[in-house]
Design a protein that fits this description.
With 354 residues, this protein is an alpha/beta fold. It has two domains: 167 residues, Rossmann fold (3-Layer(aba) Sandwich); 151 residues, Glycogen Phosphorylase B (Rossmann fold, 3-Layer(aba) Sandwich), CATH 3.40.50.2000. The strands form two sheets. Strands 2-1-3-4-5-6 form a six-stranded parallel β-sheet. A six-stranded parallel β-sheet has the order 9-8-7-10-11-12, with helices on both faces. Helix 8 crosses helix 13 and helix 11 crosses helix 14. The chain is globular and about 65 Å long. The termini are close together. This is Glycosyltransferase family 4 protein.
Amino acid sequence: MKVLFVVPYPVGKAASQRYRVEQWLPVLQEQSITYKLAPFWDMATWAILYKKGYGLQKLLGLAEGMFRRLLLLSRLATYDYIFIHREATPVGPPWFEWLAAKVFRKKLILDFDDAIWMPNTTDDNSIASNYKWHGKTARICKWSYKVSAGNHFLQQYALNYNTNTVYLPTVLNTTINYSQVKAQQTQKVTIGWIGSHSTLPYLKLIEPVLQQLEQNYSFDFVVVADRKPDINLKSLKFIVWSEATEIESLQLFNIGVMPLPDTEWSKGKCAFKALQYMALGIPAIVSEVGANVIAVPNGIVGYTCKTEQDWYEKLELLLQNAELRTQQGIAGHNHVVQHYSVQAHKATFLSLFT
């Protein structure tokens, strides 16, 4: 069996692709399934894609990506399955998917972990968003052999168009990368957040809470991201994200946070930050929104919060109590092993190719 993975990003550069595609590749190798990854963006364009300016270089990178997709059509005949992570092209209609499914008669597998059918305009994508075809997600679902959805909200959307839709959460390898549990008896407590430029604005939701906590407690607030956050905190420490140091950076945390606005877009989020925290024995304090409610059993592995008062009280509680952090950390790790690990969902992933 041969599988072609049609992916947006260069290998190893984006969390969504690393955890929903790349970490499954050894599982395919175990089954003697061969594969190839075909990224849309090349490394040079990826390096500038979310930086201001570079308009001409970005347009050139887009054109080259489209040309690579055209060339890819000539090789589709050699593959049994075409696995598309999110979309084949970042702008325009789903021409590649239509040709693959309707002309080349290939079995498409669509995988997504965001509410990509909804507009989500930010400063970084305001121009490109004018050329996105958000309605194409429904069409690609219809044309697909199977659909893999990262949470139940996404699954319910896809089921409207394709009954062969499975729930496949974003999982972690708890026997290799996420096997260690945080030792909570530290001299200073660190509250932490990990993410990218696209979700950095959500930290504004808890900025007043952290400022209030700073007046009463000594702690570090560590942000691991590709861009420094625009928040005013004395406790702030910024670490530039890299794949090589991701686990090491996370292990600095005693408490992990995941604030989210209560919006339809947020319901498409798959609680991945919280899962990363919990897998490493770090209690997660999250907004009571979408998949967070299921992923973070309240009071057992961390807390779900509705109000600023909730956030303050739960952060204060864990700041003061190392024993509780240890208890919830162990429970969180076990929860991820049982419900959100590679091993727990290996059979579901492999069922996509049957």
